[in-house]
Amino acid sequence: MFERTLVCSALLLACHAESPAVSPGVPPKAASPESASAVEPGARLPESVRPLGYGLELTIAPEAPDFKGHVHIELEVTSPVESILLFARALVVERASVTLPGAGGSRLAVARPLDENGLTAFDLAEPIGPGGASLDIDYSGKLDEHLRGLYGTRTGGAAYAFTQFEPIYARQAFPCFDEPRFKTPFDITLTIPAGLTAISNTAVRTQTQLPGGQTRIAFGRTEKLPTYLVAVAVGPLDVVDAPPIPPNEARATALPLRGVAARGRGPELGFVLAETPRLLSSLERYFGVAYPYEKLDLIAVPDFASGAMENAGAITFRDTLLLMKEGAPEWQRRQSTSVNAHELAHQWFGNLVTMPWWDDIWLNEGFATWLASRVVDEVHPEYHQGYTRVAQLERAFDVDSKASARQVRQPIRSDHDIRNAFDAITYTKGGALLAMFERYLGPEVFRAGLRRYLERHRFGSGTSQDLLAALEESSGKPVAKAFSSFLDQPGVPSVAAELRCASGSPPRVHLSQHRYVPLGSSASRDGLWQVPVCLEYPAPGAAAGTRPTEQCTLLDAPEAELTLNASECPRWVLPNAHAAGYYRWALGAAEQAALLEQGYAALEPAERLSLLSSSEAAARAGAGSLEQLLGVVRKLGREPERELVQAALGVLSDLRESLLSESELPGYRRLVQELVAARQKQLGLFPSAREDGENRLLRPALVAALAFEARDPSLRRDLDRLGRAHLGMLADERLARLPSELIEAALGVAVQEGGLPVIERAVLALGASSDGIERGRLLGALGWNQNPELSPEVLELALSDQLRTNERLSPIFGQLRQSETRRAAAAWVERHFDALIARTGSEIGAQLTQVAGAFCDRESAEHAREFFTPRVEALTGGPRLLRLNLESTELCAAFADAHRASARAYFGSPSGS
Predict the structure, then answer these.
(1) Which end of the chain is more exposed for a tag (fewer CB within 10 A), N or C?
(2) Cα–Cα distance, 736 to 726 (Å, whole number)
């Protein structure tokens, strides 16, 4: 699954409530014969009964609020049992029976709910087993309103039903053994209103017209799947057949490929259907293993909680990732390609081989993150995925630097833990660790280990230990212990490097490590990792443009010395070659100055991003000055590469938020103007016909910085006029030439300059549009409102019927981002909290704890703590999210205490620097 809590565009500089039940990761004690009384409610299911296969029949009419179902489950019973335990949440069981083979006959089973999470005992009058059996259940349920399980949604005047079963929501659609270790085949049959279309994991086997205007559709048997990968979509869907993907060395037959969208949107699927064959073929070449399923459907879902979901053979996506109109923004195309590659990678890691329990979800998501970057880089080298990978590391570093950080392989003791596992630690840190150890072992050795792992566990389950064992066998290196040092403890290592050169001795670098801890943190600096450290340094007498020497070691102790392969002391040293390591790094003052003055020109763009990241980290830990950080920001802000410029501008925006008062803003704005004005003028607002994608992305970054950060009056006048023209409030012939990437900026300035009339016009436009991209632009622009008196006009949208469920938090987060409206937004959330949870559900609603992380003072943190603490237990994943967000505010306050005086001196000077 590709997680996306907020919808972000290239414009941004930084880019009824249910009570969860406990699900300890400890198997229950067995009784003989086993009964439900032997199992604690909420525990993992016992091993005494296992599913061997499902026959699932669903009757779904998307216009109706409820559905009916029948499930037939073939069972293996390994020891006598009086009850069969499985999950059936928010379902009404009408009849259940167990059938034994031969003359054993059928007997009734009585459903007895054990907890609010759906754990249900089907009690038998007498024990069964050991041996085979089958369980048949007739039941009914309601289409979910919060984008979980089997849920309903409307768009374009029509009703649809879709599924989202990961992680534990299949149990809301059918009674099942809803844990990832249980992989079985499924036979799925849907009865739907005539004239509608149904999609599932496999191709249609038979289709029969029934009396009463219904159609019965039977799909082919699936490969072995966990319940969370089963998928269904029903509605007046457009289905677009693409040319089958041709056979290749890994796959002997052509693969059927289709795109699926809401009625009338099929023509917008052309881009993704053209991109997919290249991405899939790249993955097949890498693995040497054919795509594991019989067909591939890409489904655009109009209201979807996450970015996408890797259901086997029927991948679902937020519709904005698949539907492209002419002139679609460059960021949308790239995001579509990246997320598509991520979901396709899951077809091997996660689907073909599945983790047995949620503590190893990083095997799915970390691998998909890492592989997507690799695949996109191969298919689209012009996207510079290597730079993007390093820039995105900052999110993982930020979360992992907190005292409340969790480890990658976090023990799962509750449903909160399951939901929390889908975060930057799993996705970004997990992917970064794979990249680091791939470089340490070598790409071919690493790939051989992955192939060995897939071959051993094909259509089964595999753990972290299984993977690390395969890597050790392929490499002959004791990699398991080193890798586990990152998987099984939280935190980011900080590696310090000190160059030591003595006459008559070869140069050496003294290395030391500890846990990185920012100012204000309660975390301990203790921690020991086995860190693959690769250094770079110039060879003696090397000509300009020559790549530096690279030398690696495994730092497995608190301190170590590395003797360099050099005849004389190098002028500089970089402790993270190619920015490939998952660690912060630090140099002494002299070494840092030498790197900036003599080594900077030799650094790759990714290494310069790493330099900025570590410079900011030093300032936030109190080990570096604000002036040193701003010196690096100035260097990167003048670089030609877009990612470097955006990273520098993002740091500046963060500094403004946390350190500057009104009196320093003129100096701050002069610095932003100095960095971007000339280049923005060169690019202009209107692109040339042959402009490349990097410039199409750089332009909105520069325009946003100049319009919103530097407040350039001339540019704001132009954007204000173009934004009003887009809303039909006036005519401007230039609108026809405005690139789609700049529409949100134009609308945002128009909202700030035009106030209530523009806001009202944007809200009307929102109500008239069913296009996700346009709706995102309008919601993003409304979030730029900076007038607290007008905040209610924006915030009330969160409770309006105009918004989809996945859009409801957008106006709130937009107003939280503006310092002028932040307190008004926080107060509004408190007043309307219960209504918001009723609209969003407990899982999406948990993101409201971001209010606690929106400030930079301890008083606000304490107020947020008092408000949210009594409420978060009812929010899925809420307790940990609250701790993370409160800690963000507390760390920001400590950073501000340390550097506010320096910021005032730097930006308050007459020159603004």
Answers:
(1) C
(2) 9
Overall domain count for the chain:
2
Give the β-pairing of 91-100 and 105-113. Answer: antiparallel
Tell me: do 428 and 453 sit in the same domain. Answer: yes
d(Cα 285, Cα 197) in Å, to the nearest integer? 34
- Whether a cis peptide bond, with omega within 30° of 0, leads into 130 is yes
Q: Give pTM, 2 decimals.
A: 0.94
Q: Residue 364's domain spans which residues?
A: 358-487
Q: Give the per-residue SS3 of 352-393.
A: CEECCCHHHCHHHHHHHHHHHHHHHHHHCHHHCHHHHHHHHH
Q: Are 207 and 216 in contact (CB under 8 A)?
A: yes
Strand partners, 465: none
The stretch 438-460 carries a mean pLDDT of 97
Q: Are 350 and 310 in contact (CB under 8 A)?
A: yes
The sign one gets for the Cα dihedral 64, 70, 76, 77 is positive
Q: How far is CA 522 from CA 65, 404, 485, 861, in A?
A: 49, 9, 22, 15
| Integer Cα distance of 657 and 903 in angstroms | 12
Whether the per-residue pLDDT at 102 is higher than 90: the answer is no
Q: What is the three-class DSSP state of 637?
A: helix
Query: Is the same domain home to 482 and 497?
Result: no
**CATH assignment of the domain containing 367:** 1.10.390.10
Q: In what order do the strands lie in the sheet with 508-515?
A: 559-563, 508-515, 493-500, 584-587
- Greatest CA separation found in the chain? 95
Strand-pair category, 353-354 with 460-461: parallel
Match 């052309």 to its residue by tokens. 270
User: Per residue in 324-375, pLDDT tens?
Assistant: 999 999 999 999 999 999 999 999 999 999 999 999 999 999 999 999 999 9
Same domain? For 476 and 498 the reply is: no
DSSP state of 319: G
Edge-to-edge strands, sheet with 232-235: 149-155, 158-164, 232-235, 197-200
Which of 487, 511, 533 is where one domain is finished? 487
Domain boundary among 419, 454, 487: 487
Q: What span, in angstroms and rounded, lies between the C-alpha atoms of 522 and 405?
A: 12
